[in-house]
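Lecture notes, unit on protein representations.

Consider one protein chain, 161 amino acids long.
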Amino acid sequence: MEKEMKIKGLVVDPISKMPIVVLEDPQSDEILPIWIGVFEANAIALTIENIPTPRPMTHDLLKNFLDKLDIAIEKIVVNDVRNNTFYALIHCRHNNQPIVIDSRPSDAIAIALRMSSPIYVEDEVVRKAHGMKFDENLDSSERLRKWLESLSPDDFGKYKM
């Protein structure tokens, strides 16, 4: 089953120094952290902050193609996690025909934000992610999990939603 989630914000992992997009289920306050690349974090942050760019960035270019070809993004779904890697699907519609496209979650989220499309996560992904070890050192994993769970809106800095 899928649950709709919202972007709670972007933070930097204090251990790996990598960006994390934090999704939250507004109904339960359950969170799902997804480690992403710097460029994808930038693409997400630009949209969150409504910062225009002088020329279209990659996800903006893709949005322009989708708009011109009259392809709607109905939703994106983070549908799996395997070996600490998350997977997503972009659910599109063109000429009343459904199209499903494999994607990295970071790209799917960046596109969903630009297209004002909802973000869903499979329940099983949330369950698996809560059992994931973020680091080989259990102590570090537990500290990171506790840190993520204790984040307040002020901790998200300028990227809070």
